[in-house]
Amino acid sequence: MSVIEWGLWGLAAAVVSFVAAELVARAWLARFGRAYVWAPYGRVRMYLDREVLPTLEPIVEHHTNAEGERGDWLPDDTSSMFRILVVGGSAAECWFLDQASSWPNIVQKTLREPQNRQRLGVDHVHVGNIGRSLVTTRHLDAILARVLPHYAKVDAIVFMVGVSDLILWLEQGAPKTLTEEPIPSSALFTQHPDGPFGWRPGTLALRRIASAWNRRLRRPITVRERVGKRLGEVRLMRQNAREMVHEMPDPTAMLAGFERWFEILLERAKQKSPHVLVVHQPWLEREFTPEEEKLLWSFGAGRPYAGVVTRYYDHDVAWKLHRLVDRSVTEVAQRAGVEQLDVMPLVPADFEHYYDDHHHTPKGCDIIGRAVAEKLLASARAHTRAPEH
User: Fold this and answer.
1) What DSSP string describes 77-113?
2) CA distance linking residue 16 with residue 193, whole number of Å
3) What DSSP string runs through 350-387?
4) Which of 127, 153, 318, 352 could form a disulfide with 108 if both were Cys (CB 3.0 to 4.6 A apart)?
5) Residue 382: pLDDT band with limits 50, 70, 90
């Protein structure tokens, strides 16, 4: 055979080998792959835009453990460990905060104090955070359905939910009837074994597996500059809104959907953990100065991070809706028989503790984290107290 023929045969063999390897990779992922809210072994360093977020730390870091949680690595011996899982939307995620300053980490830091470990009767406390921005209670149930079976033990599950259901409903135009479309895995998990796969480099199963092993072996740091710049742009959208809506839309369908999925979510959590705590998500409600108004961006009739929004709901409408959702949180938690904690009265309604309508500065997180830790301590002691005779 000529050199050209040998080359063609070699090329054909390489193509066949590549296709076979890709198909094997897809089959392997389907059989053994796991879904993780945050990709294991991930590390991110972000330099915040100081003009947009002057009250937050200038450099923030997130890291993900082997379980796909934002949190520390688990100890080798977990036999004497109190393990907590934090579940919720962006207020639990704490995206613009350094991991050490987030309220889930403050919970861990507080409970790791010697006197508190003694009160819990353990040698170690671990808090894993799988909060993710703009996930509704329906999204969270889909997440827990795939994540919880991989946990051998969870001593407490802490929820902070409700606002995402409200915000997404407003962004969809406040429909009177809700439709529940299939949720793509990419909306729930940053690493998962599901398709769709293709033959372009970014859609290959081989690439997905290689990326996972690169994070595991090399643990590179992803560096992002001027993080928060887009937040400044969406704030301007609200300031320049063509229409401000002053009439409250009918929230019946939204509240019914929220209550239905929250009940399912709490029941799933109760089956896994002896302690379930619902932390009411606080919001910033006060009279704003013109300068403070420039820091706000929520309640658009449209998705500001996905395009241009020109129609917004005013804060009086938003606060009424918040109170309705919060009442639903109370009623569902009461029916489920789980404990609740209202932190809104504890967090001062100012821009030292909030940096927008729903998200907290390190000062705000410190208050929330310590309150959650104390509630968990009281709950654990109540469950372990010897019965009276």
Assistant:
1) --TTEEEEEEEESHHHH-TTS-GGGSHHHHHHHHHTS
2) 23
3) STTTBSSSS-B-HHHHHHHHHHHHHHHHHHHHHHHSPP
4) 127
5) low
Q: Residue 134: which region, alpha, beta or left (left: phi > 0; alpha: psi -120 to 50)? A: left
pLDDT tens-digit readout, 191-201 = 999 999 999 99
Whether residue 184 is preceded by a cis peptide bond, meaning omega within 30 degrees of 0, is no
Q: How far apart are CA 85 and CA 195, in angstroms?
A: 27
What's the confidence (pLDDT) of residue 2? 76
pTM of the model: 0.94
* CA gap 377, 362 in Å, rounded: 22
pLDDT per position as a tens digit, 126-184: 999 999 998 999 999 999 999 999 999 999 999 999 999 999 999 999 999 999 999 99
Q: What stretches of 176-228 show up as alpha helix (H) in DSSP?
A: 205-218
pLDDT tens digits, one per residue of 289-333: 999 999 999 999 999 998 999 999 999 999 999 999 999 999 999
**d(C-alpha 147, C-alpha 85), whole Å:** 11
What is the full DSSP assignment across 126-185?
EEEE---TT--HHHHHHHHHHHGGG-S--SEEEEE-SHHHHHHHHHTT--SS---PPPPG
CA angle 305–306–308, rounded 5-degree value: 85
Q: How far apart are CA 89 and CA 225, in angstroms?
A: 24
58's tokens: 């200038």
Q: Round to whole Å and give the CA distance between 367 and 97.
A: 15
Sign of CA dihedral 121, 152, 165, 189: positive
pLDDT of residue 383: 57
What angle, 0 to 180 degrees and rounded to 10, lies between the N-to-C axes of helices 315-336 and 163-171?
Answer: 140
Q: First CA to last CA across the chain, in angstroms?
A: 94
The sign of the torsion formed by the CA atoms of 307, 194, 190, 159 equals positive
Q: What is the dihedral of CA 116, 121, 122, 126, to 10 degrees?
A: -50
